[in-house]
Amino acid sequence: MNTDHPASLTPPPAGYAEWLLDLKSRIHSAQQRATLAVNRELVVLYWQIGSDILARQEQQGWGARVVDRLAQDLRNAFPDMKGFSPRNLKYMRAFAQAWPEAEFVQQAAAQLPWFHLCTLIDKLKTREERDWYLAQAIEHGWSRNILVIQIETRLKDRIGAALSNFATRLPQPQSELARESLKDPYRLDFLGLGKEAEERDIEAALVRHITQFLLELGAGFAYVGRQVHVEVGGDDFFVDLLFYHLKLRCYVVIEIKAGKFKPEHLGQLSFYMTAVDKQIKQEQDAATIGLLLCKSKNKVVAEYALHDSSRPMGIAEYQLVESLPAQLQTSLPSIEQLEQELVDTHTSESDAE
């Protein structure tokens, strides 16, 4: 009689589950480090090749045709390696031109995948913009698609641009972090609503598209609920949208107004913030902050209204329909073409095997 049991049915010894969990974590970390190391080596290699091409063209007057010749020679020498097409070599040259310092490339740029770097080169004109989006992509772990969205919706210009009274109503460094957590305007194109949409329609659409709305709000926001019920003095009230900010450690009340900003809107927002502070906020939470989203605002009127408010609030506009800016036209091939080219090359090599 066979008394052996499958390994999966064998009772584990004491402490086995914790040990297995630790092993999985260490293996996953090692895999991540290996992937990052490979990417780092590849990015540094591409920078070195691009820097060589740039130097020889500038110092020895080599023409653009040398890139085509180099691509052919490198592919002949390394037939199993992808990435030596004329298109990619042009990106290598642009990469070295965009970031000429080897130390910066090794310490910062090499933390991003190659196609992220190509996106920064392709869609942004200045070193300041490229460095800002590069740092944000590293900090927040953006995919390339998310990076493209953030660039095309001008995140750098919008972040921290909302009018607020945080500087006088919140202590440092919370006031600065709260200011940087808000934008102006908020881009809500993904809702698919026309400019005349009503407040409830916008609220409902935001909840249906909560993942995209959280992306637009930015890092740190966690969704709590819509039309959150609070009872005050026997009367029922409903908060439009309630979030919790993980970095600020506080609740964020968002009120939506489909028309132009009016000072009385802040009175309603302040009332809801008080209700949240008294009924929902816990002792360890910081004071609730408020954000009023409106279709339009008179900046001077908004500044006056905020000055008279004793609670920390911000005012920003939202945009439901807005055409994206035209992509920066460069002499480089599109990143999509380059990606497809490398995929096709890899497929052809696999089929040949």
Major sheet summary line: 7 strands, mixed
Number of strands: 7
Radius of gyration: 27 Å
Low-confidence stretches: 323-331, 345-353
Q: Strand-residue fraction?
A: 15-25%
Structural class: alpha/beta
Roughly how many Å apart are the termini?
48 Å
Rounded mean pLDDT is 87
Order of helices and strands: HHHHHHHHEHHEHHEEEHEHEH
Write a compact overview of the structure shown.
By secondary structure, the chain is of the alpha/beta class. Helices cover 53% and strands 15% of the residues.
Describe the 3D structure.
By secondary structure, the protein is an alpha/beta fold. The protein is 53% helix and 15% strand. Strands 1, 2, 3, 4, 5, 6 and 7 form a seven-stranded mixed β-sheet that branches. A hairpin with a 4-residue loop joins strand 4 (235-245) and strand 5 (250-260). The longest helix has 45 residues, at 16-60. The model is unreliable at 323-331 and 345-353 (pLDDT under 50).
Structural features:
353 residues; alpha/beta; 53% helix; 7 strands
List the helices and strands and how they pair.
Layout: H1 16-60, H2 65-77, H3 86-98, H4 102-107, H5 114-123, H6 127-140, H7 144-152, H8 155-158, E1 163-164, H9 166-169, H10 174-181, E2 186-187, H11 199-208, H12 210-217, E3 221-232, E4 235-245, E5 250-260, H13 264-279, E6 289-296, H14 299-308, E7 313-319, H15 335-352
